[in-house]
Design brief:
6-stranded mixed beta sheet; 15 helices; 28% strand
Length: 630
């Protein structure tokens, strides 16, 4: 088939898409499941009590079963004396009757013996031999739960549509119910598309542009959270006939089919063409960000929704549009989304003319006030799935959210809480070990310069800064360490690299770090010193370094390019050399400092971090890292 590039149809209003999805018919049946497997399921039928609960008059206390009239007038000063004639324990049938002037010792939960109509608490009595002294009067029914007073036989106990939690399961257990009729969860087919996708656990060929499939398991887990039963199908490449075959099978076997990817209008995007030509394409494109290339339709008379391929877009569209439909099909009531309000930590500009579901993170300032900050690395960044706590919905006409402006955050789940500590800055192997010892930290490895910027802007609690900086802000220094940095080369250093000059004077392929990194700043300073020695400027020298502008995100990424044979030299740490089997050329030592915002220094999370510094015991096995020196 020759692929045809096609423009998006008119983008639909989000509310219209909600209404359209609500109209899709998803018909599920009922099934009977053991009570032990019923948590979270929804009752399909009413359940009436088949027995009284309790099924007998039961003592609520430890004490003595009595005839109430025998205690009338009893007080502490003028008690009555009665004769004990027996005892009844829980789980046994009474073998004695309470006659006038007698009592029977009784345990909590035991059957009240014949003749008794009340129970006196043991604390209001005294006993000597077979004589029981009662120091209080009781009325008929005191200390007794009458048969059927909890649940009466024939009583309506739970109605259809009830979601079974631990409480309902406890009630059903009390009724002796061991299996229940429940709504069958909708079976939802999950299909990821794209030649570039590989299932996790299989070998990945990055040189061929392959990436692991994120959406299949992410969406499947989200379906379960919404009350559905996911059926994950094998990844389908950008092949029209195969896509049609798998989609047809999913439509025959499932109540709803979800695909991800291939929904846009590119030449290799076949799903929308497939639905359009062989099904019923009801909508193509919705006016939201992220998630514009969304599909709604039917295939083989089965409801179908196409999610975008980027993980953040796919999950956002699922949560916003699809999860409510699955809950409804499962018989679960609409979930009131947990919403909280906070103040924007920074100004955020937006001028795209469509609804934006902006991922945001939460952090508390030094006074415990909730701040909201954007977490948007792009729809393809999977870390946005865990770095964000919820979304802020921006109307199409919104152009800007100002710092300090109150916004409403829709949380991803009701148990979301701000992290105990929010740190932003340099990535470092010792820092990773340090964070493991803290409760609920969140750390964004965005580089030293970005860490300082966000600390200055009031977003983070701490910044971790490596090497020289030119953007100092008012901070409280908590502690730090030192680390040796330099150039990583293949084992035995076959090119004889000795320093920066070898990069300038040869065609060796170099991998640098990004501009935000403290390692990059130290390297640039080294190039600057070499330029001074040669009587030139740094820019001239960097033009002679092959790959100077080729950067990688984390401290171990550049060395791994050397390991893979994609580069000859990489900027990095001595700590990376031995684990990767590379040689190391030292260029110096740089300090790593942990800096706190002055108004956050007394936050419990910041104080807990400070208490771990210097982390001397964490540096074991990390070559070139000296804890306590910075």
């Amino acid at each position: 088939m020759v692929a045809v590039r096609k423009q998006f149809r008119d983008l639909a209003d989000p509310e219209d898409v909600h209404a359209l999805i609500a109209e899709l018919e998803i018909n599920t049946g009922t099934e009977t499941v053991p009570l032990a497997q019923a948590r979270g399921r929804v009752l399909a039928e009413r359940i009436d009590a088949g027995i009284d609960v309790p099924g007998f008059d039961r003592s609520n206390v430890d004490g003595y079963a009595v005839r109430a009239e025998d205690t009338f007038g009893a007080t502490e000063a003028d008690p009555v004396e009665l004769e004990q004639v027996g005892r009844v324990d829980a789980g046994e049938q009474p073998a004695v009757t309470v006659e006038p002037g007698t009592v029977v010792e009784i345990a909590t939960g035991a059957v009240v013996p014949p003749g008794a109509d009340a129970v006196v608490m043991v604390e209001r009595t005294a006993r000597e031999d077979e004589t029981v002294t009662v120091r209080t009067a009781v009325a008929p029914g005191d200390g007794i739960m009458v048969a059927g007073s909890d649940v009466a036989a024939g009583e309506r106990t739970l109605g259809p549509g009830t979601e079974l939690t631990a409480r309902e399961i406890g009630l059903l257990s009390a009724l002796g119910v061991d299996s229940v009729p429940v709504r069958s969860p909708p079976t939802v087919g999950v299909l990821s598309t794209g030649d570039e996708l590989v299932a996790p656990g299989n070998a990945l060929d990055s040189d061929a542009g392959q990436i692991y499939d994120v959406n299949s398991q992410t969406i499947a887990a989200s379906i379960e959270e919404a009350g559905g039963s996911p059926e994950v199908y094998p990844i389908v490449g950008d092949d029209f006939p195969e896509m049609k075959r798998v989609l047809t099978a999913a439509a025959e076997e499932c109540d709803l089919v979800l695909s991800s990817g291939s929904t846009s209008a590119g030449a290799a995007d076949h799903i929308y063409q497939l639905i359009d030509e062989h099904g019923d394409l009801l909508r193509h494109g919705v006016a939201v960000k992220p998630g514009k290339p969304m599909l709604v339709g039917r295939f083989e008379n089965t409801p179908y929704i196409g999610l975008p391929g980027f993980p953040v877009s796919a999950l956002t569209i699922f949560r916003h549009f699809v999860a409510p439909k699955i809950r409804d099909a499962a018989g679960k009531p609409p979930r009131e989304r947990e919403r909280i309000t906070g103040e924007m930590a920074v100004t955020e500009r937006y001028k795209e003319g469509r609804t934006r579901l902006m991922p945001v993170g939460l952090v508390e300032d030094g006074d415990g006030e909730l701040l909201v900050y954007p977490v948007d690395k792009g729809s393809g960044a999977t870390t946005s799935l865990v770095d964000a706590d919820g979304t802020v919905e921006l109307a199409p006409e919104t152009e800007q959210l100002d710092a300090g402006q109150t916004v409403e955050v829709t949380l991803f789940s009701a148990d979301v809480r701000p992290p105990e500590l929010l740190g932003i800055g340099e990535d470092d192997p010792l820092l990773s070990r340090l964070l493991d010892r803290l409760d609920s930290p969140r750390y964004l490895s965005l580089g030293s310069r970005e860490g300082l910027r966000r600390l200055r802007n009031g977003i983070s609690d701490v910044a971790v800064v490596a090497g020289p900086t030119d953007r100092e802000v008012e901070t409280v220094e908590l502690g730090g360490w030192s680390r040796e940095w330099g150039l990583l080369v293949p084992a035995d250093n076959p090119d004889g690299v000795a320093g920066v000059a070898d990069l300038v004077d040869s065609e060796l392929r170099f991998v640098n770090r990004g501009r935000q990194s403290g390692l990059r700043r130290s390297f640039d300073d080294a190039v600057e010193r070499l330029a001074d020695e040669r009587g030139t400027d740094r820019a001239s020298l960097t033009e002679d370094i092959s790959g100077y502008t080729l950067t990688a995100q984390a401290y171990e990424s550049p060395p791994r390019r050397v390991l893979a044979g994609k580069a000859d030299v990489a900027l990095g740490l001595r700590a990376s050399a031995e684990p990767l089997g590379l040689a190391f050329v030292s260029l110096g030592t740089q300090s790593v400092r942990v800096l706190a915002a002055p108004d956050r220094a007394e936050k419990p999370g910041v104080e807990a971090l400070e208490a771990l510094l210097p982390p001397a015991d964490l540096a074991d096995g990390l070559a070139g890292i000296e804890a306590g020196e910075h």
